[in-house]
Design goal:
Blueprint (H helix, E strand, L loop, with lengths): L33 E9 L7 H14 L4 E5 L7 H4 L7 E3 L2 E3 L1 E2 L5 E3 L16 H13 L5 E8 L6 H9 L4 E6 L5 H14 L4 E7 L3 E2 L6 E2 L7 H7 L4 E5 L3 H9 L11 H8 L1
Parallel strand pairs: 1-7, 1-8, 2-6, 2-7, 8-9, 9-12
Antiparallel strand pairs: 3-4, 5-6, 10-11
Helix pairs in contact: 3-4
């Protein structure tokens, strides 16, 4: 060992007897839980429908006979409980916090299930938020889960980094909108996944078009789609487009997401479950 050793083996190229292998930062799952696959749903910016895609994928997975779960990592902007019509507080036992369960069986944990009032703001600093996300993994008694979908907050800050480093993410789905700016936003999300050595399984373009209910012509309200070009550039095999659909928005507002119909995410779902 050199007298100038910094004791940070990850940044040192020397070989010596004191050298240690990099240590995994993955947090241990709750001892009473088993999760086969963890899929992150990410976006480079807010307001593009990440929570919508997360909930739709969980519903579709559950319909295929798998046990689905959602870990709502968007601590300051949680919306998952609302779209499923869940308003009761979570309860705990000696085995951990028990997730809420939707009418069709999807398991959910969100900060809104732990607040005194679901409208209370979460005014926490980054490390505290990151700690809460870890606890959703370590302290919640998830039971047996086939596919867990993690609804991440937008961007590439503290919480997305915590999820990538602390949970065994098997792949991510990137959600975007049709605007010209989206190329840069998608690139940031894809590059972060690459830095974390996590594969990008699919790209979803939300609010892609509006289909007239009378003539069935498609109108590109937010501009022409760029999903094919983006998928080719970033070598993403599975893509999907979700239209602007008032009926879908109404189901979210009513807490009836499990009643939605539509095959927009079928290709993405096939990639996840293959």
């Amino acid at each position: 060992m050199s007298e100038n050793c910094s004791h940070n083996c990850s940044e040192c190229g020397s070989e010596c007897s004191e050298r240690t292998a990099p240590q995994s930062m993955i947090e241990p799952l709750n001892k009473n839980s088993s999760v086969k696959k963890v899929i992150g749903v990410v976006s480079g910016k807010g307001g593009v429908g990440k929570s919508l895609v997360t909930s739709m994928l969980a519903v579709l997975t559950q319909r295929k006979g798998y046990q689905a779960a959602i870990l709502d990592a968007d601590i300051t902007g949680p919306s998952i409980p609302k779209v499923f019509g869940i308003h009761d507080r979570a309860v705990g036992s000696e085995d951990g916090i028990l997730p809420a369960v939707t009418k069709c069986g999807t398991k959910i944990m969100s900060i809104n299930l732990l607040l005194d009032h679901e409208g209370d703001p979460v005014v926490w600093r980054g490390p505290v938020i990151a700690g809460a996300v870890k606890q959703f993994w370590t302290d919640v008694n998830w039971g047996d889960v086939d596919y867990m979908f993690v609804d991440m907050p937008p961007g590439t800050g503290d919480v997305p980094l915590t999820v990538f480093q602390s949970l065994p993410i098997d792949g991510i789905i990137v959600v975007a909108s049709p605007q010209e700016l989206v190329e840069m936003i998608v690139e940031k999300a894809v590059r972060m996944a690459d830095m974390m050595h996590v594969p990008v399984l699919g790209l979803v373009e939300n609010m892609a078009y509006f289909e007239c209910p009378t003539c069935h012509d498609r109108h590109f309200i937010f501009g022409q789609s760029h999903i094919a070009e983006l998928a080719a550039r970033f070598q993403i095999g599975s893509t999907a487009q979700i239209p602007i659909d008032p009926a879908l928005a109404s189901l979210c507002d009513q807490g009836s997401m499990e009643a939605f119909t539509g095959g927009w995410l079928d290709q993405i779902l096939q990639t996840i479950t293959k």
